[in-house]
Write a structure and sequence with these properties.
alpha+beta; 6 helices
Length: about 270
């Protein structure tokens, strides 16, 4: 297969178009997004709760989430990373895409006011509350091999195998498992290069609330992140509360924060038309 070599002029022109697009996207965004949500979290109105599930350390769970519902993921008993994947319930070939989520919002820093995209350019989740701001959308989760290296001789569970089980129970295959979002994982680029674990960014008892913008199948795995410095395998229980969210206002921050989010919600509307 032959590849055409681009001229310096073409490369410069492409770069200029990219920078202009980036500039417009950043100019549209609010100058300052909200700070972290308060700790402790406000209680959820009991009349709106659909289901509540405690995921023990090392285990997994999945649920169907309807558009207009939300989930609160709560570190009930201390620091613990939770991996999340999601599929469009009506067409599971559409799934969460963290690369696009970071790319179109010009940041890997996900927090209150941001949205999470599918690989079809539609919005799957709005991040309506978040006390942490320390989430990882790049590294991926643990595997049997990474756990064997990190916890030699111990019997452990891992995120990859958990999601294989989740996919199977949903009638899907391992090839259907998308890239994962690690919640409560304070991963940042280290000064020397590569990824580093910034423990100071984590708070025991952090929580995040995600509003569903389409009907979805959502899977969770409660296993330590590969970079978690704790030498012991001791993931804490996580509580997931599914509830009926308030109807978003016309000026809802997640729906208006960036030009890309606006277009994503326009794509959602087209899907329902």
């Amino acid at each position: 297969m032959m590849h055409m070599r681009r001229s310096p002029e073409e490369i410069a022109a492409n770069r200029a178009r990219y920078e202009e697009h980036q500039k417009k996207g950043l100019e549209f965004a609010p100058k300052v997004l909200p700070g972290p949500s308060p700790l402790p979290a406000l209680s959820i109105d009991a009349s709106t709760i659909v289901h509540q599930e405690t995921i023990p350390g090392g285990w997994y769970w999945s649920t169907k989430l309807l558009r207009g519902e939300a989930i609160r993921i709560d570190q009930a008993e201390g620091n613990s990373t939770v991996a999340l994947v999601a599929w469009n319930a009506a067409d599971t070939s559409e799934r969460i895409n963290l690369v696009d989520t970071a790319k179109v919002q010009w940041t890997t820093a996900l927090g209150k006011g941001r949205v999470i995209f599918s690989d079809m350019g539609r919005v799957m989740f709005s991040m309506i509350e978040d006390s942490s701001g320390a989430h990882d959308c790049l590294m991926g989760g643990s595997t049997a091999a990474s756990n064997a290296d990190k916890y030699p001789g111990e019997k452990t569970r891992n995120t990859r195998d958990n999601f294989v089980l989740v996919a199977g129970k949903l009638g899907l295959d391992r090839r259907d498992i998308p890239g994962i979002l690690n919640l409560f994982a304070p991963v940042r680029l280290a000064e020397a290069g590569g990824f580093g674990w910034q423990k100071k960014l984590s708070n025991s008892g952090d929580y995040v609330e995600l509003r569903a913008e389409m009907d979805m199948l959502v899977g969770f795995s409660n296993c330590p992140h590969p970079l978690d410095p704790d030498p012991a395998y001791q993931p804490k229980p996580i509580v997931v509360t599914r509830y009926k969210a308030a109807v978003p206002a016309v000026d809802d921050l997640c729906r208006t924060a960036t030009a890309e989010a606006v277009r994503g919600f326009e794509n959602n509307a087209l899907m329902r038309a």
